[in-house]
Design brief:
This protein is mostly helical. The protein has helices at about 30-35, 35-55, 80-90, 100-110, 115-120, 130-145, 155-165, 170-195, 215-225, 260-275, 290-295, 310-315, 345-350, 360-405, 415-440, 440-465, 480-495, 505-565, 570-600, 605-630, 640-665; strands at about 20-25, 70, 95-100, 145-150, 200-205, 230, 240-245, 500. A hairpin with an 8-residue loop joins strand 6 and strand 7.
Length: about 675
């Protein structure tokens, strides 16, 4: 990191690379698992050893190490618990999204045989049956060793259905209803696991994907969400395969050596840990890769010399109650001040969530908000440099034309040299701005740091709900994927909240932090759309007026010439004044072209449309949030809230991709 002056803001430490895997598989009673348990155990151990070796061999992109592997599983008996044991033996982190609260989860997964034992487990007491008690003890042991994200908001309803199965009056309909409701919860927890993982390991016989919440269903969901799946057939565990697409499930297996399989697995791990950008390291020139953010020089406020673009917005934006000549200087919030500054309200709301993770607010402030503030400040400065530089280039090109010709009405040709020198200096300014902007990658660094900032801006809301963008659905860029790596690993640094999620928690979280965030972003994009429409319209009119004045100038000269030919005007006076008309005939179209060039470069109309679409999407999300808030307890559930959180994420990411697709090709250049 570069030198930091006393009192200046320091770049937050970049997140360490961390591999997150999810494990799913059949239960211990499955015929294939029961018959081949020792072989499956050996196979999983070999796979885990390969993963550990690949992580150990990976180059840490930040810090001095690759962080410990984090394993996600639902802790069901059989493969889940086998994988959890192997992970803990390697000192890996264990994180478990449970389909139910821990007591209900035990009451279901400890396999009780009597209603009395079900009630005992639901009450947190020891069951009478020895086998049930042993199963419950195993679960409790794993509960104490891992991080639990308990989807407990529907526990009362599910517990009532569970108890109804054991009643004398139980019917097949009762059993089917409980199975359906429980399967939905398991599938929901499985989706949480998939979203948090870079790789899913599945011990699956390949028979069907139709059972909701089953192993096959989890495999198909993972592939549909773009996560690679390492699939182990319990009857042939040594011949495991890696799938990257749902369509591969129907393709016959090829005969592949163990070395080739290990190489394929290592490649998947490397892709997760390393964005594989050619210029990721700080040792390369041109301020590329992660170093372009972490080693950037911090400035507390914007530079007036780079205000060209924002001055255009102020002059032509038509903001009511705001002077076009108002100050456009921006103060950037230091990373270490955001917790007590703009992020204070969010952190206070997080702390007040009922039954929330007591450590999550501190983790979000450290891992997300500080990195957001840094990326936001660096991006804003680079935006000024790049866009302001291009605006100045357009203006300097016109001034160069004016400087080269404005001497005509006032000086003799022999006195032209000062104006030629001025023209040369203005052209030199254009070349300097273009050279420096290209050399320092203002354009590329702005796009990259802005992606980081926008991903992190809304990620605290996703973290609160245990929601994440699946690894296969992150945006792709032809200019490098380190910003997505940086944002994803910042979020992964926190992981799933450690809490029992309740209806009260959901209601307060969506009514407070989520509503405020969506409302703020909707209003921002709506106001931005209005402002950019005005900028486009007013620049268009201004350019047209300048062209019209040029036409008037030319027509006036032609009219006076005709009048002189007809004896109605002194041709000598016209000859003396013709130089003024020449200057106007050149300068006015030049300025009109510069204004049109700024309008074309800024693409204000298209960006207004992008922001308007984002505002519309967020307004629809806000309407869904209000409907969720109106739902009664027992109906409000995690699935609905997670869907809304994903819709918020989708609206934000869609806006980023649309915005980048427009500005991505607009490199800083000489306005020709």
């Amino acid at each position: 990191m570069g030198s930091v002056k006393p009192g200046a803001s320091r770049a937050p430490i970049a997140p360490a690379s961390r591999l997150c895997i999810g494990v799913t598989g059949h239960r211990s009673a499955h015929r294939g698992v029961a018959a081949n348990l020792s072989r499956i155990d050996s196979c999983l151990e070999a796979v885990f050893n390969c993963i550990a070796a690949a992580c150990a061999a990976a180059d840490p992109l930040a810090g001095d190490r690759v962080a410990s592997v984090r394993l996600h599983c639902l802790l069901a008996d059989g493969i889940d618990q086998l994988a959890a044991r192997l992970a803990l033996e390697r000192s890996w982190e264990l994180s478990s999204p449970l389909p139910f609260g821990r007591r209900l989860n035990s009451a279901i997964n400890a396999a009780p045989t009597t209603i009395e034992d079900v009630r005992a487990l639901l009450n947190g007491d020891a069951p009478a049956d020895a086998a049930t008690s042993a199963n419950a003890a195993v679960l409790e042991a794993y509960y104490g060793k891992g991080r639990l994200f308990e989807l407990a908001e529907c526990d009362d309803r599910i517990a009532a259905l569970l108890l109804a199965q054991y009643a004398v009056s139980a019917t097949s309909a009762t059993t089917l209803l409980f199975a359906a409701e429980a399967s939905k919860r398991v599938a929901l927890a499985g989706t949480v696991m998939i979203e948090q993982s870079d790789l899913i390991i599945a011990v699956w016989d390949g028979n069907t994907t139709a059972h909701v919440g089953g192993t096959g269903h989890t495999v198909s969901t993972a592939l549909d969400l773009g996560a690679p799946v390492l699939c182990i057939n319990p009857t042939r565990p040594e011949s495991w395969r890696i799938f990257h697409a749902l369509e591969q499930l129907g393709v016959p297996a090829a005969d592949v050596s163990r070395a080739a399989r290990d190489a394929a697995l290592t490649a998947v791990i490397r892709a997760a840990l390393d964005p594989d950008d050619e210029a990721f390291g700080s040792h390369l020139a041109g301020k590329r890769g992660l170093s372009s953010l972490t080693e950037a020089r911090w400035r507390p406020r914007s530079t007036p010399l780079a205000h060209g673009y924002r001055r255009i917005e102020a002059l032509f934006g038509g903001d009511e109650g705001s002077s076009p000549l108002r100050s456009v200087t921006q103060a950037y919030e230091p990373a270490d001040a955001i917790g007590n500054g703009s992020g204070a309200a969010l952190l206070a709301e997080i702390i007040m969530l009922p039954g929330g993770d007591p450590d999550i607010a501190v983790a979000i402030e450290r891992a997300v908000l500080r990195r957001f503030a840094w990326a936001d400040g660096i991006s804003a400065r680079l935006s000024d440099a790049y866009r302001g530089g291009m605006v100045i280039n357009f203006l300097l090109s016109t001034l160069a034309v004016a400087g080269g010709i404005v001497y005509l009405p006032f000086f003799q040709p022999r006195d032209k040299w000062p104006f030629a020198l001025l023209e040369l200096m203005l052209i030199g300014g254009i070349l300097t701005i273009t050279f420096v902007g290209t050399r320092r990658r203002w354009h590329g660094r702005w796009l990259e740091s802005r992606r980081v900032a926008e991903y992190l801006r809304h990620s605290p809301l996703l973290i609160l709900f245990g929601v994440s963008r699946p690894v296969g659905l992150w945006p792709r860029s032809t200019t490098g994927s380190w910003p997505e790596w940086y944002a994803r690993q910042s979020i992964r640094e926190i992981g799933l909240p450690h809490l029992a999620l309740t209806a009260a928690y959901l209601r307060q979280a969506i009514g407070g932090p989520l509503t405020r965030h969506v409302t703020t972003q909707r209003d921002y994009h709506a106001a931005k759309a209005r402002r950019l429409k005005h900028v486009h319209h007013h620049l268009d009119r201004f350019s047209l007026v300048l062209f019209q004045l040029a036409v008037v100038s030319v027509l006036t000269y032609l009219a006076l010439t005709i009048a002189g030919r007809l004896g109605a005007f002194d041709l000598e006076r016209l000859a003396h004044g013709s130089k003024f008309f020449t200057v106007l005939g050149v300068i006015l179209p030049s300025f009109a072209s510069a204004v049109a060039g700024i309008r074309y470069f800024g693409d204000f109309e298209r960006f207004a449309a992008i922001s308007q679409i984002a505002a519309t999407k967020l307004d629809l999300v806000l309407g869904r949030i209000q409907l969720l808030q109106a739902q009664r307890d027992g109906v409000l559930d995690y699935a609905g809230v997670a869907s809304v959180a994903h819709s918020t994420d989708a609206a934000v990411v869609d806006e980023i991709e649309s915005w980048q697709s427009v500005f991505g090709g607009k490199q800083i250049s000489i306005p020709a």
